[in-house]
Amino acid sequence: MNYLDILQDREVMAILTQIDIFNQNKPKHYGIIHTIGTIKYAKILSKCFEMSDREYDLLLIACALHNLGHLNGGSLHAQTGAEMARAYLKKHNFSVKDINVICSAIASHTGRRGDNFYDTVSACMILADKMDFGADRIKDELASTSTEFEICNKITYVDALRNGDVLELLLGGKDVNWDAFVATATYSKLYRCFETVCKKYGYKFIVRVTDKN
User: Fold this and answer.
1) Which 3-state string (H, E, C) describes 144-211?
2) Residue 8 has pLDDT above 90, yes or no
3) What does the pLDDT average to over 160-182?
4) What is the CATH number of the domain that holds 55?
5) Do the bridges between strand 166-173 and strand 155-163 make them parallel or antiparallel, or are there none, so unpaired?
6) Torsion of CA 58, 59, 65, 70, to 10 degrees
7) DSSP string computed for 114-132
8) What is the enclosing helix (H) or strand (E) of 77?
9) Which among 30, 5, 4, 36 has a CA at the least distance from the CA of 15?
C-alpha cells in the first residue's frame, strides 16, 4: 500500500471530507486540499535531503494521514492523528518499524520539539506542512478575515532548492507585501522550522523572494 492507495481509501477520504465540513467556516483548508498540498511539498523537499526510497514512501504516507486528528479538533490533532494512523496502518499490515516512523512524523509535525528534526522523514513532514500556507490553502471567501490570510492568499509560488550546503526557500506572488509578511506569525513559524532543520542537518538557510508566480 502506498500513499495513492491511501488517498483512494474510502475510510480515509470520509475522514478528510468530514474534517473539511467541520472546518467549513475557517479560512484554511485542513482536509483534502491541505493533504494534497503537503504531499506536493514533501516531494519537493525529498530532493533536498538524502532519503532512501523507503523513507520517501513512508514520508508520503505520513503526509496522506497527517491531519486525521483534526476530526477531533485542532488543539491536539498531531497526537490524536498519530493514534488514528497507527490503528489504520496496523489494520493494513504495515510493519511495526514502518508504523513507528510514520506515526512519529505525524505526532511531531507541528514542529514544536527540536529533537524531532533529527529524523529525516519527520523533518520533511514538518517543513512540507508549513510550506502549504499560500493561496491554494486559503479559502477565497474567508481570506479577508485577517491581514495575514490576505497576504498568504497572494502567495502563489513556494519552492525549496538545495545548492550544496545551502537550502533556499523560494516565495513568489503578485502584489505581495513582503515586509508585512515577514512580520506575520506564519512567516515566523515557517522560518523557525526551516532554520532549525537546516542547522541540525548542517545546511545554511536563506529565504529568497522571486518574481515567479
Assistant:
1) HHCHHHHHHCCEEEEEEEEECCEEEEEEEECCCCHHHHHCCHHHHHHHHHHHHHHHHHCCEEEEEEEC
2) yes
3) 95
4) 1.10.3210.10
5) antiparallel
6) 150
7) GGGGGSHHHHHHHHHHHHT
8) helix 77-91
9) 30
**Gap between the Cα atoms of 138 and 186, Å rounded:** 13
Which pTM value belongs to this model? 0.94
Q: Does the pLDDT at position 118 exceed 90? A: no
Cell numbers at 89, concatenated: 496502518
Domain count across the chain: 1
Task: State the residue for C-alpha cell 515577514.
Answer: 182
Q: Which residues have CB under 8 Å from 180's CB, separation 6+?
A: 147, 151
